[in-house]
Amino acid sequence: MMALLRALLALLQRDLLLAVRRRQDALVVLGFFVVVVSLFPLGVGPDPQLLRSMAPGVLWVSALLATMLSLERLFADDFRDGSLEQLLLTPQPLPLLVLMKILAHWLVTGLPLVLISPLLGMQLNLDGAEIVVLMTALLLGTPILSLVGAIGAGLTLGLRGGGVLISLLILPLYVPALIMGSGAVDAVMYGSSPEAHLSLLAALLIFTLLLAPWAIAAALRIMLD
Amino acid sequence: MAQPRVQWFKFSSPPNFYDLSGRLIPWFGGLAVVLFITGLYTGFVVAPPDYQQGDSYRIMFIHVPAAWMSMFLYVLMAVYAAIGLIWRVKTAEVMAKAIAPTGALFTFLALWSGALWGKPTWGAYWVWDARLTSELILLFLYLGYMALHGAIEDRQRAANASAVLALAGVVNVPIIYFSVKWWNTLHQGASITVTSSPTMETVMLTALLLMTFACWMYSIAVVLWRARLELLERERRTKWVLERMGGKA
């Protein structure tokens, strides 16, 4: 048991250390998120009321795309230098190891999106309560995006044009998270309680947390077979 | 271990599957033709015009079976994919791959006929109705499956990887459906529903059922055909293929 915990922590530490050493990767994702959100007003016009009503959707779709962008790197580097194969050979259960890698990935790419979202929310004219709900929804939703996306990242490992393929495979599966997430912000905006949306989002997170690691592990075993 | 009375796995061996499906395809294909003709005749000639929608409701005879098939085929594809992934049954892998294009075709048909039906009844080719939206997402799922299958060159790996994707998809389909439905009712207030008149006339129902069975038979025939070709290609170096192809390697 202790050995398992130590292995998991070591893996988490390694991935975080790698991310710190190559901070550009994470910053590019964050920059992408900010740029995409800032482009919307230029496309649809500066009308504050319009921007406000579009804000939940814009922020969520941009978060989906930013996550999408970061997914290709999730296993690719480890695959190239062979450490992913070593990971598959370890005695520790692969789904748990995979979960650690995703946790690291989320801490590096998902969490920054959550933290910067208030700023972008203000840019799009959201008020205080709406921003709180937006952050909560993103906090619950971005781990789902990382988990489901990792299935796609595993399945496209080592393929030509894998990055584009991931988006075709995974974006349809993001629909529930997108609906619940932006729906929560919509709900506060129209003066009703966001609780139902947030509860469903949390349920979806638990559900994904239970199933996705096994699917990812299966995908990795298949692609490295 | 007790032997089951019917040796199901006998049919899953490629040569047996190849021979049996070769004998079955003409029957399913023939039935499909007969059913299509009688179904279309009943639907377009015998059935009376609807008192509200006039003649435009007749699109239903294509639209409804196509929508049913599109959903059913996705589940069936996932079942075959699971069988292939878990028990390593090669024929099941081939069947899963063979179902995908037919499923995508029916999804597309359902969307297309829905759009054509939507124009006279709702006044728009496309509305973000829950069913339309989830059907569209289903089409994306089919396309993703086929794209992944096509992108991986190794056949065994392609079959396994896309099986995982099909299973992830099938777990998600109900969640997607309900979330889209919920999203739709929240956003549109009173949602537009595709209600057929509650008491459908017997002749309309007959036409609808005939068309549904026709689509069934068509799907079986085409999927088996595609699976046969795929099997031949996969097994082209084995003895049974050479025997059946007259010994030309």
The percentage of residues in β strands of chain A lies in under 5%
Classify the secondary structure makeup of chain B into a structural class: mainly alpha
Give the number of helices of chain A: 9
Shape of chain B: globular
Helix content of chain A: over 70%
Secondary-structure content class of chain A: mainly alpha
Descriptive overview:
The complex is a heterodimer of chains A (225) and B (249). Chain A contains nine helices and no strands. Chain A is mainly α and 225 residues long. Chain A has one domain (2-72, 81-223). Chain B has one domain. The longest helix of chain B is centred in the last third of the chain and has 34 residues, at 155-188. The chains are: A mainly alpha (225), B mainly alpha (249). The A-B interface holds A 148, 151, 155-156, 159-162, 165, 168-173, 175-176, 179-180, 183, 186, 200, 204, 211, 215, 218-219, 222-223, 225 and B 85, 137, 140-141, 143-144, 147-148, 151-152, 157, 160-162, 164-165, 167-169, 171-172, 175-176, 179-180, 182-183, 186. Chain A: This is Heme exporter protein B. Chain A: Keywords: Cell inner membrane, Cell membrane, Cytochrome c-type biogenesis, Membrane, Transmembrane, Transmembrane helix, Transport. Chain A: Belongs to the CcmB/CycW/HelB family.
List strands and helices in order, with pairings.
The complex is a heterodimer of chains A (225) and B (249).
Chain A: H1 2-21, H2 23-44, H3 48-80, H4 83-89, H5 94-123, H6 128-155, H7 162-170, H8 175-189, H9 195-223
Helix pairs in contact in A: 1-2, 1-5, 2-3, 2-5, 3-5, 3-6, 3-7, 3-8, 5-6, 5-9, 6-7, 6-8, 6-9, 8-9
Chain B: H1 8-12, H2 14-46, H3 60-87, H4 90-122, H5 130-151, H6 155-188, H7 202-234, H8 239-244
Helix pairs in contact in B: 2-7, 3-4, 3-6, 3-7, 4-5, 4-7, 5-6
Concise synopsis of the structure shown:
The complex is a heterodimer of chains A (225) and B (249). With 225 residues, chain A is an all-alpha fold. Chain A has helices spanning 2-21, 23-44, 48-80, 83-89, 94-123, 128-155, 162-170, 175-189, 195-223.
